[in-house]
# Entry
Amino acid sequence: MGQVLVVTSGKGGVGKTTSTAALGAALAQGGQSVVLIDFDVGLRNLDLVMGAERRVVFDLINVIQDQAKVSQALIRDKRLENLYLLPASQTRDKDALTEKGVTKVMEELQAKFDWVICDSPAGIGKGAVLAMQHADIAAIVTNPEISSVRDSDRIIGLLDSKTEKAKIGEHVEKHLLITRYDESRASSGDMLQTDDVLDILSIPLLGIVPESQEVLRASNLGSPVTLCSPHSLPALAYTDAARRLNGEVIEMTIPVERNRLFGRLFGRRAA
Amino acid sequence: MKFFSLRKRPKTSDVAKDRIQILLAHERSVTSNSDLVALLRNEILVAVARHVPVDLDQVDVSMDRGKSLSTLQIDIQFPPMPRRHASMRYNA
# Structure
């Protein structure tokens, strides 16, 4: 049985879809079979970030409503043969998602793949709850700023009460993924410290992904950042995070651009 | 003066940390206990209403969860009780 990972946050725009794509690709690059499911029905974007927007024929809702088989809806990545995408529907709304239908799809995918990664919509509505329903592990994507931390706290509460695991008295393994970390703001004291965020949310850290132009470039090109620029700082952070998901113990580093000393000095003075 | 205040400017991250900690302490107590508080409120009301008339709007139940101690506060206001002889006369 494959493991189910939900990438969630509560707040929108923190980097759930980017993180889903990057973690999924990193796990697939490590040799495991991975499927990414977009739960953001009506506002899908994972297909775009993965560069598969022109290859969508059937979607998650079609599968749930028995209009297509899972195998017909899955899109195989052009770069990695063990990476697949199950897109969301762009024309339906969230009410088309049913608990029974999602359960059926998840069971089928868990039997076929090592990792089933659910990209949650923002918010705490039906879509977000169904995305986390079957999770074994949760990556809670959080920006180091107060509104994101507050929403993450709320999502942690939902993970502890609304998931299948919670209902049978077990726990979803929760991990914090800090994204859009800004070194210059951190050193000037204008960004919540990682330790403070960890202290407030009291869940273990999966990784710290720096704010980077590379993430934007990757989404422009429709490629996960770990594939598009594998040696960039965000790619390295996601690759380490993926290895931690597999239980490896890797020292946590705060990503800093080392080979751009001049730029860094200048950036610090400006900040 | 302005120069002085600029130099002593507190880190905004510290302000943010304090604010979010206070906020979450409140929100966690509200959301995690909401079911329990509602349940207690109803059961206590039923018990009290058996003996005295109670106005639902005059009942306030709150819970504070601390590290070592939690408290449940129940505040029920009811109209002045009839005096004993008055109620006896009424019953007769």
